[in-house]
Design brief:
About 30% of the residues lie in helices and about 30% in strands. The chain is of the alpha+beta class. The protein has a single domain, classed as Alpha-Beta Complex (Ribosomal Protein L22, Chain A). Strand 4 and strand 5 form a beta hairpin. It is globular, with a radius of gyration of 17 Å. It starts with 5 loop residues before the first strand and ends with a strand. Bound molecules: coenzyme A. The site of coenzyme A (COA) has 19 residues, from helix 2, strand 4, strand 6 and helix 5.
Length: about 210
């Protein structure tokens, strides 16, 4: 089993066999349009099954994932194993922990009017910071976005929970409704990722799961 205090972030690649999906998942897959989204769905569901088996040393059940009303997925029969999933284009990554967790990965290079988006969704101070960041505006925006989204995914609300509620104090610390949140930033070529947790993690490591 995963050690308490350990967060493992799995970058998932390859093309697993669709037959590994449950009947429900196969039905869901039919309703998904877009190649990247379908591939991310297959990869993420097969990876979650394979990681449940690895951590619990038992094969995953046919129905192993349920979804809270606000959209946060959770493992049905494993209350002490938590995960949070994120995809960005073809990149799929999943964070696992023994305690609740929120995770987000985003492409580093993005072209958009970050100042306007920040004025719309972030606090006045954060938008001002981005406006003053010049050529670093994009990286600052993506950094803040991943941290805020990870915090809201930890809560289970997603961005409809209000990006302005997720406060980011530093690379390591944030706050949600007065409650301290621990943040951990990771990056790998082309991507920035964050995990958020209420308990301070002892270790965070990035691993790869490749389906042949
Ligand atoms: C639903 C939301 C969590 C998805 O965010 P996203 O950045 O589009 O997508 P991600 O790949 O990071 O996360 C999607 C996964 O989060 C999980 N998720 C969905 N709702 C969630 C919630 N309320 N709480 C926690 N996790 C949730 C699901 O596992 C989902 O994957 P799935 O659809 O394959 O099951 C929400 O925050 C959202 O709508 N975001 C809009 C994103 C956006 O505009 N991004 C711009 C970035 S610069």
């Amino acid at each position: 089993m995963l050690e308490l205090g350990m967060i493992e972030v799995w970058r998932v690649r390859g093309m697993p066999d669709v037959s590994l999906l449950s009947q429900d998942e196969k039905a869901k897959l039919k309703a998904i349009s877009g190649q990247d989204t379908s591939e991310a769905f297959i990869l993420s569901r097969c990876a979650i099954r394979s990681l449940i088996a690895k951590y619990t040393r038992k094969p995953s059940e046919e129905k192993c994932i349920e979804t809270h009303p606000e959209g946060k997925p959770f493992l049905v029969n494993h209350p002490d194993l938590h995960f949070s999933l994120s995809h960005s284009g073809k990149e799929v990554a999943i964070a696992f922990s023994r305690t609740p967790i929120g995770f987000d990965v985003e492409k580093k290079e993005r072209r958009a009017d970050f100042v306007s988006i920040a004025r719309r969704f972030f606090s006045g101070a954060e938008a001002a910071q981005i406006a003053a960041a010049g050529e670093h505006a994009a990286s600052l925006f993506v950094d803040l976005w991943t941290a805020k989204e990870a915090i809201l995914k930890l809560e289970g609300s997603g961005i409809s929970g209000g990006l302005e509620r997720a406060l980011v104090w530093s690379e390591f610390e944030g706050e949600l409704d007065g409650r301290r949140v621990h943040l951990h930033r990771m990056e790998w070529p082309g991507f920035v990722a964050r995990v958020a947790s209420f308990e301070e993690p002892r270790f965070v490591r990035v691993k790869e799961l490749v389906f042949q």
